[in-house]
């Protein structure tokens, strides 16, 4: 019971943390923190997308993106 | 009942242009997608790329055909319903449309035939070149049309003299203040539309357990393109927002749903409003506290400028601009969320098995089209009451013709376009139901167009098709 409660709390904290991080990242891309942050966030986002595509591409060939 | 010719002319143009924009959006997006697919097929010889190419080529051809036909109508409508606009703005708008014909239509007309019917008549590289040239043609077309429309939004490089807009600087007419941002915004929107169409159809097949190789590759490519494109789109959108705030403040004031010259502090971000244009206030408003200040002024307590900053007779209708913007924005956020989710699922190896994600992709299949339409509603209704912002009012641009001259053509357009749309949806859905053609195709490796046009090759090719 206690373990379940702890797990639920941890799960909630992690979900809230990820949501906040995601919101801040979205804010960064849409220019809330200025153009420099927007460009940096966009570069990070595209790099992450490209890296994920290259490393974990379950269906297609590795050269697709 | 007495019909107002200005309302009829505007309704007719709004209807025909709203219908038209659906098809170029699909064809611009799909043309470049097809070029990428064919390029990957030539490079890897992986048949799945060719299957995807052949499947989407049919839908591209239909969208392209309807797009050209309905686009031509718009040029004639300048003369039919907006003769004064044609007379006054013709010196600037006319050449831009002519350049579109010269650079884009001629290119597309020259190579579309090879792209659609030349697969087993010319070599793969020549066929690929034809696909790339058609894709370039769609981009040139978008550039000229966006130059013309952006000039109407932020006119520059012209002076008003003797009842005409006289061009003094062509460079400034074409590269007007909003064109450098509106063009990538529109092209990105077309690419996003294509990405979600491709991913949505792939997800549909995965949920049905059919055409699995085709479906996996479609979902993989569609979500990969969409993820990168949507991040770029919100970034470009933000820069465009700043540009429009500077050059067309009334549009952005209407788009945010605030009336007072300065909003309350902190400003909420409105999601739903019921505006009362006559009383210059909202009858109902629902928003998120602080978010308006953060997004629009980039501070916690910033105030947002309202529509009362614009004289009442120069205000656009708030409801149209507001909801055009909100629909586009909410769909953009949904696309962004799906893009991030796709990255996560790809990382976890669940991209093709997560049913909630596949269902969401199917639901989002037309999202690019809806967002593009909503964005154009913001652009066009937010510019009102001007047809050329700050220069010529829409009411002064309309042809001096009676309502009876406009009503029959409006009814005819509604009837004919309904048939077009029904036919497009019927054949597209039939193609999707039938699925990709999995039979092998033999491309002609003889190469040159000259060879393909030799009588015995043509004869053999036609016999082969039978």
Please describe what this structure looks like:
The complex is a heterodimer of chains A (65) and B (466). With 65 residues, chain A is mainly alpha-helical. Chain A has two helices and no strands. Chain A has one domain. In chain A, helix 1 packs across helix 2. Chain A is flat and about 50 Å long. Chain B has two domains: 413 residues, no CATH class; 48 residues, no CATH class. In chain B, a hairpin with a 3-residue loop joins strand 5 and strand 6. Chain B is globular.
- What is the share of helical residues of chain A? over 70%
Content-based structural category of chain A: mainly alpha
Q: In DSSP terms, counting alpha (H) and pi (I) runs of 4 or more, how many helices of chain A?
A: 2
Q: Residue-averaged pLDDT of chain A, rounded?
A: 81
Total beta-strand segments of chain A: 0
Set out the fold topology.
The complex is a heterodimer of chains A (65) and B (466).
Chain A: H1 2-29, H2 35-55
Chain B: H1 5-44, H2 47-81, H3 83-117, H4 124-153, E1 158-161, E2 164-167, H5 170-174, H6 179-208, H7 212-247, H8 249-256, E3 269-276, E4 281-288, H9 291-297, H10 318-348, H11 355-363, H12 367-383, E5 386-388, E6 392-393, H13 403-434, H14 449-452, H15 455-465
Antiparallel strand pairs in B: 1-2, 3-4, 5-6
